[in-house]
């Protein structure tokens, strides 16, 4: 058996056949991060500059600050600053000072379950510029309140920054959350992205906002386990037996199990090539899967040997 590389593809030559070797799809490194905040927009069809409703929950005391007409450049410059800069800006009431057109709602809250908050822009107009715009319509900060001289774990979430687009006559895209950024106590900034489940339910994960390579790092949020094939399990769309456990990248469909993953090169939902993946739950069911494959492999070997005997006898007798 000889193995060659041809235009980046590994090929095996044996006998008269040439067999391309399937490249191993890399697994993304991952860790788990707890986010104490949730932020959701209400029905977007009725949202406007005069009436925007959102639902917020928090497990920690926090400060909410909203700003209208925020400079895109200056916002991203500020987001990369250290956590201490966030704390100082909130304490001095200087958050994004000079880089927004209107200051909106400010709230100081303790921990609470889901609460609906209504926002509206103060009187005046926004100059967002012509597309591509130089300002975001609305930016909402949820910043964790920490006592003086307190120490947080470096991986603790300290702020959730929500960038909201509001439909207008110039940009008629529906009102929606354009982006969400997560700030950790160690200064790490990450962009939250949604995973697409086959059932239509939503999970979330974040990737490193400063990385151009999506396979570098991922953080799974609300990662759940569970026993195999229970009524709460969401099953693999391919085999409909094992629970789905892998999120595919770059399409972000979460729809297959570990067993079927090794048989696929494209996403079964959208057919886009699978470049990398990460696990959204434990894969303890793999032991059962491996046992099943072992039994299937032994059966296949017996069938192949039986077929070889039949072919040899047929050839010997000249009956072919």
Q: Main sheet, how many strands, which sense, barrel?
A: 12 strands, mixed
Average pLDDT score: 79
| Total beta strand runs | 18
* Multimeric state: single chain
Distance between the termini: 29 Å
Could you state the order of secondary-structure elements as H and E?
EEEEEEEHHEEEEEEEEEEHEH
Catalogue the unreliable spans: 1-12, 210-217, 222-231
Helix vs. strand class: alpha+beta
Please tag this protein with its features.
single chain; 320 residues; alpha+beta; 12-stranded mixed beta sheet; 3-stranded antiparallel beta sheet; 18 strands; elongated; Znf_RING/FYVE/PHD; RING-type domain-containing protein; CGRF1; Znf_RING
Layout of secondary structure:
Layout: E1 2-6, E2 9-14, E3 17-20, E4 30-32, E5 37-41, E6 52-58, E7 62-71, H1 72-79, H2 83-91, E8 102-109, E9 112-119, E10 135-144, E11 157-165, E12 176-184, E13 189-197, E14 202-208, E15 218-220, E16 246-249, E17 253-256, H3 258-261, E18 276-279, H4 286-316
Parallel strand pairs: 4-15, 13-17
Antiparallel strand pairs: 1-2, 2-3, 5-6, 6-9, 7-8, 7-10, 10-11, 11-12, 12-13, 13-14, 14-15, 16-17, 16-18
What can you see in these coordinates?
This protein has four helices and 18 strands. The chain has 320 residues and is an alpha+beta fold. It is elongated and about 95 Å long. The relative contact order is 0.12. The N terminus is likely disordered.
